[in-house]
Amino acid sequence: MGGKNIISIKSYSFALRIIKAYQYLGKEHKEFILSKQLLRSGTAIGAMVREAEYAQSKPDFIHKLSIALKEANETEYWLMLLKDSQYITEQSFLSIDTDRKELIKLLVSIIKSSKSDITKKDENVNC
Question: What pLDDT is recorded for position 1?
């Protein structure tokens, strides 16, 4: 598996959970529309984190992680629809959503820290 940093590991593990949820929804409920959207957005988080590992610049890094953040937010929407339409239980929703929220917290922290680094660099140049 790619990088050894915590966001890479957690986003990859999250993607695997999303794939299992997709397989379950297709096999047990014959649900393919919402689950396909969940699969797309839920696995895109890790893909964007992976892309960010080789970003061309700090702004590019921030941009890629910001897209991952948007995908995590979209994933919540699909999870909520699946829960509220009773394709998944409240317990299943809470379990996977806890992981999603943790990813969001990590992404927000990394993005803020990276933006702060750029600001500090700019201030040092202007001194």
Answer: 40
